[in-house]
Specification:
Elements (H helix, E strand, L loop, with lengths): L1 H8 L1 E4 L4 H12 L13 H11 L17 H8 E8 L22 E7 L10 E3 L8 H4 L3 H10 L9 H9 L3 E3 L6 E4 L5 E3 L10 E8 L10
Antiparallel strand pairs: 1-6, 2-8, 3-6, 3-8, 4-5, 4-7
Helix pairs in contact: 3-4
């Protein structure tokens, strides 16, 4: 069910209340620039989810129980590349970002898992996301699709330029604000349109973003 939900909506929110993993996330954030991949090994829940969604045929439900003896980080690295772990920071006084996608939907195999390092509530800079937009055909959606895509290929995350066509569709398309708690996992297809929202609180909102890409030899085979 989870993999089907992710495919249809482009995101899902999973709770994670493991104290040891929450503590490790905070330690990783504190030493992010020097953190080695091996230091992430204790994030079993995160890599368990990532592994089953990065398989050539995403398979979450058939493996519903996490096996504490399995090294899920190693299993992820067998089928995918961990491109990076970054601090998705939303500073106090921020404004709305422009609606955007991180990677166009023909560039498949990407998966992002965002993990908040504090509870994210209204006014605290939650991510806004437009469910289902990862399936849109750009050539059928935009009148000026070539102009939009040409710029976005060179600069995938368009925060500084807002195309009127994208904004007008985003204003009509139902969106969701992703309120989450410390340690939760916001799993998303980065082709799904999204944006940062204003942080009106006094403290910054820190969120670790884990960026994966399925290896080419494990790419999902399209039907002939």
């Amino acid at each position: 069910m989870f993999s089907v939900f992710l495919h249809g909506h482009g995101f899902m929110l999973l709770e994670n209340r493991e104290p040891a993993e929450v503590a490790l996330l905070q330690a990783v954030h504190a030493s992010l620039s020097a953190a080695a991949v091996s230091s992430l090994r204790g994030l079993q829940s995160l890599f368990f989810v990532a592994f089953h969604l990065l398989l050539p045929t995403p398979d979450y439900d058939a493996h519903g129980q996490l096996d504490s003896k399995t090294d899920y980080l190693q299993k992820v690295l067998e089928v995918a590349t961990l491109y990076g772990v970054m601090d998705n920071l939303n500073r106090p006084g921020s404004t709305f970002q422009n609606p955007h996608w991180d990677y166009p939907n023909w560039d498949s195999g990407w998966l992002v898992i965002d993990v908040p390092l504090s509870d994210v509530r209204p006014g605290g800079g939650p991510i806004e996301i437009w469910p289902g937009t990862q399936h849109l055909r750009y050539d059928q959606t935009f009148v000026h699709s070539q102009q939009i895509l040409r710029i976005r290929e060179a600069e995938p995350r368009q925060y500084s330029k807002c195309f009127p066509e994208i904004l007008s569709i985003a204003q009509l398309w139902p969106s969701a604000l992703l309120h989450s708690s410390l340690g939760d996992m916001v799993v998303r297809n980065p082709s799904t349109w999204h944006r940062g929202t204003p942080n009106s609180l006094a403290s910054p909102r820190h969120m670790l973003s884990f960026i994966f890409r399925r290896r080419r030899q494990h790419a999902v085979k399209k039907p002939v």
